[in-house]
Amino acid sequence: MRRTPGAGRAGGDRPPTDRSRGAAAALRGAVARLRPRLPRTRRGRRRAVQGLMAVCVLALAPATWLHAVADPRVRTVQDVPARQVAVVFGAGLWNGKPSPYLANRLRTAAALYRDGKVKVVLVTGDNSRAEYDEPDAMRTFLVGQGVPDDRIVSDFAGFDTWDSCVRAKRIFGIDRAVLVSQGFHIRRAIALCRAAGIDAYGVGVDAKHDATWYYGGTREVAAAGKAAFDALFKPDPHFLGPREPGIDDALAAAAR
Q1: What is the mean pLDDT of each successive set of 10 residues along the chain, which is 256 residues long?
Q2: pTM (2 decimals)?
Q3: Alpha-carbon gap, residue 112 to 236, rounded angstroms
Q4: What DSSP string runs through 69-127?
Q5: H helices within the chain, ranges in order?
Q6: C-alpha 168: how far from its chain's center?
Q7: Which of 113, 116, 155, 246 could crosslink 124 through cysteines, CB 3.0-4.6 Å?
């Protein structure tokens, strides 16, 4: 029987040719060029470490700023200073009803109202689609918790924390407020509302340390960078518009 070239080698494993050797060498060269080159000298390595440390410091600076600005203003329902208005930030709907995280925020706002710490509640959230209406769902929940309907004001364009803070100041005329959100978010809310011109304290709502909590905490590290940008450059929110009298009307109803 005549053997064909390569017979007896698994998969036709033939000896490498000059062409295949050249291709392999070119591939190794490409990989070597892409591989990061570590400094070979002690001075170079020290500079590399210093550069890495500088990047880490810059990355963590916004989060450090949030804590420095907001930590003294995070309180509980019992010790937060009384303000006329509480601001509750949206946190998603499940089948048209407040998510568990949002429901906890709303229960806390209702407790503030019952304890006389606030007179009016501003609910701010997303209503960008007809089938998704955070503020109305929040209002319905608060009424179920005993807050009178005429003490609740809706902001339908609170698409993010900065938008909610700016609109609370410029559209609804709020100068002082108690903010209500989960603990991992409340510092960013305080810092941004203060940057928007509101004398704000915050109540951090307790939450079960589930996957959502860990996601929220991780997300805050990245969100701190955007918060620092918003506080520094103060961009306009997605929607402004004329001054709305809702807060003034609700306070007048509370005074009767």
Answers
A1: 41 50 63 57 65 54 83 96 97 94 96 98 93 96 98 97 98 98 94 97 83 67 87 94 96 94
A2: 0.76
A3: 30
A4: HHGGGEE-TTTSPP-SEEEEE---EETTEE-HHHHHHHHHHHHHHHTTS-SEEEEE-B-
A5: 18-34, 42-70, 100-114, 134-144, 161-170, 183-195, 211-233, 246-255
A6: 18
A7: 155
